[in-house]
Amino acid sequence: MAAVRKPEARLGGHILADALVAQGVTHAFCVPGESYLDLLDGLYARRNRIQLVTCRFEAGAVHMAEAYGKLTGRPGVAIVTRGPGACHASIGVHVAFQDSTPLVLIVGQIPFEETDRESFQEVDYRRMFAPLAKWVTQIDDAARIPELMAHAFDVAVSGRPGPVVVAISEEMQRSMATVPDIGPPPVLPAHPAPEALPRLMEMLGRARRPLAVLGGSRWSAEGRAAIHDFLVANDLPVAVSFRRQGLFDGTHSNYVGDLGVGADTTLVAKAKECDLFLAIGTRLGEPVSQGYTLFDMAGGTPIVHVHPEPSEIGRVYRPALGIVSDLNAFALAAKATRPVERPAWSGWRAELRAAREAQARVPDYDGPLNLAAALQELERILPPDTIFTTDAGNFATWPTRFMHVSEGQEFLGPTNGAMGYGVPAAIGAKIVHPERTVVCFVGDGGFLMTGQEIATAFHHSVAPIILVFNNQMYGTIRMHQERTYPGRVSGTSLTNPDFARFIESFGGHGEVVERTEDLVPAFRRAEASGRPAVIEVRMNPEQVTNRATIAQLREQARKAAEGAAAGARAPAQPARVPVPRRTAPRPR
Q: Where are the beta strands (DSSP E) in 50-117?
């Protein structure tokens, strides 16, 4: 029997670096700060084990770490300094929270002896991050680093995955301690209860109009393949939740669209008609439920809700059956069931698929650039393992409506609607998978929030291709503005740089696209350059959404106002006086 090696005394900063190694961390994304110099020194000593990615803005660093978490299923790690650094990082923590992405954020902290003096950059992180993270802690004793870091990683991946924040005080990093490292525990995933699958299949056998919706995080390749086989074997119509397009093959005949912001109105209407709703992995939150309008909360429509976190089941909608399970374990168990014989919903599934295909047909948009047609031409030449990242905004509805994420491709987007996510997420994805093509969709507004992270791509020699959709406005807000206050434009117009020259100033590849037929050749040149690339797609500002122009929105608003005014002018109807009903006299 081999002798157990006794741990040696180490500085806290080095113990912390070793704790990351023990948890299997391969990348850490940071903006450096004097509050964690000793951790930086520890990471230098472990530079052959952990790649430290130096970023330009804390929000960008956490977005990169969050993309790492989405792609690998393991906690992404970001490190930022105290005060302003932590405040900037909070955007990414909120993304990870609402997207259920495992993440560990390490924040440098003031010396603990200065606590509650409002020291330079002092923040109480337990109070600050309490509503944004699964757990917040602070390490003031170097001997507790392995224990608390191991627990942080456990919490990040357990149940519903999410972010954990760990503050590290300055002097703790400089103190010596003799303590062993702690690795991850061999925890077996939670499986469905023995009666769960029989009850599910019994309910499915009685259904006539079922609809399955996939969502959630930490799906493995094996789990995704298994749930695909189960859904196809039962010929079920399959939608994905908001920005989860990578969970099911969008080219498959069982795929019927996405239930999220900007969902097809036909799919929403059909979802309200379904007689069995299979929510697998997804939270039944505001985007999926279309503002909590799909179903009544008391359970009028039977819902089967599969989720790894018990508290999410029945949180808003009372399910007919709740199944607490690891998603991959559920998928493998579901695949092993006997499919429904002669399912009664083949026509229903075909009807929903036809609606999806109709939605993806290219309309005849005005102008030299038909973005829908250009994106579909681009889709045909992309590799089968492409990784897409998207920012937030109206532009994002174009690729989700007209493109199809196929099996083997990935799609990363912020379900909390955070602008500035797309570019750093693309860089993070390219760092994790340098061999794969990474394409970012971002608007002109979102690009100038975190577009400086292009410098990080150059610094770490990765080359994502970024499509900047330029319509010179904050398009989503302008859309709502025109619907509510037509013609009264305030705060939504933008003045932009030449985005192609912006990337060229770094030494990258820049293109400008103004016609439909120019996008694919521009993309091929960007890909061939081998450098980080920006393709500026100059859109028609009048076409504010893929379904309406500004003029059409104003006309709709005008008609709505006229209708409201006509209703107000209509004479009031006299109140109806109830007429007493005659009844036969009671017998004496």
A: 51-54, 76-80, 103-109
What pLDDT, in 10s, does the model give residues 224-235?
999 999 999 999
What's the angle, vertex CA 335, arms to CA 334 and CA 336, rounded to 5? 90
Domain limits for position 316: 196-359
In this structure, the answer to whether residues 57 and 116 fall within a common structural domain is yes
Q: Are residues 240 and 200 in the same domain?
A: yes
We report the CATH number of the domain holding residue 207 as 3.40.50.1220
Beta strands 176-178 and 9-11, pairing class: antiparallel
Compute the average pLDDT of residues 413-425.
96
DSSP 293: T
Which token pair is 156? 């990040």
Spatial separation of the C-alpha atoms in residues 451 and 429, rounded to whole Å = 15
Mean pLDDT of the 426-435 span: 98
Amino acid at 346: S
What is the value of pTM for the model shown?
0.93
Domain count along the chain = 3
CATH, residue 88: 3.40.50.970
Sign of CA dihedral 403, 404, 405, 411: positive
With beta carbons less than 8 A apart as the criterion, state whether 123 and 94 touch. no
Among residues 23, 119, 37, the alpha carbon closest in space to that of 74 is found at 23
